[in-house]
Specification:
With about 130 residues, this protein is mostly helical. Helices cover about 60% and strands about 0% of the residues. It has a domain of about 80 residues. It is rod-shaped.
C-alpha cells in the first residue's frame, strides 16, 4: 500500500475546479469590482425599463390613432346612411369637423360643455 503524504510546506490551492469554471464564465472578477458591476447592472436594468416604457407609449399612441380612425369610419358610415335617408342637414365638411372634434374630446376625456377652469381663486367676469 502506498500512502501519499503532503510535505509540511505545501499549501492547498484556494481555487478549486468550480471556482476556476466560475472565473472562466465571468462570474468571479477581481476583488473590489463588485460595485462597478452592480452599477452597470443597475444602469442596464434602468435602460431596459425606459425602453419598455417607450414601447408602451408607442403602442398606446397607435391604439389611440386606430380608435380615432375606426370612430371616424364608423361615424362616416352612419352619416352616409343618414344623408341617404335625408336626416343630415349639414354639409360634409362640417360633419367631418364635428366628428374630428368629438373623437378628440373622447380621446382626451373632456367635453366642451363641461370644461371648467382649474386655477384656484380664479374669477370669471362675464
Amino acid at each position: 500500500m502506498e500512502f501519499n503524504y503532503r510535505t509540511i510546506g505545501e499549501q492547498a490551492s484556494p481555487y478549486s475546479f468550480l471556482t476556476e469554471q466560475a472565473s472562466r464564465a465571468g462570474y468571479l472578477g477581481p476583488p473590489g469590482n463588485d460595485f462597478l458591476e452592480q452599477r452597470k447592472l443597475r444602469e442596464a436594468i434602468l435602460i431596459e425599463l425606459e425602453k419598455e416604457r417607450i414601447r408602451q407609449e408607442v403602442i398606446a399612441t397607435e391604439i389611440a390613432r386606430k380608435r380615432a380612425v375606426v370612430d371616424e369610419l364608423r361615424g362616416g358610415q352612419n352619416c352616409s346612411i343618414e344623408r341617404s335617408i335625408g336626416f343630415a342637414n349639414h354639409s360634409h365638411e362640417s360633419l367631418v369637423e364635428e366628428r374630428i372634434g368629438m373623437s378628440l374630446e373622447k380621446w382626451l376625456g373632456i367635453r366642451a360643455a363641461t370644461r371648467q377652469e382649474t386655477a384656484p381663486f380664479h374669477y370669471r367676469y362675464h
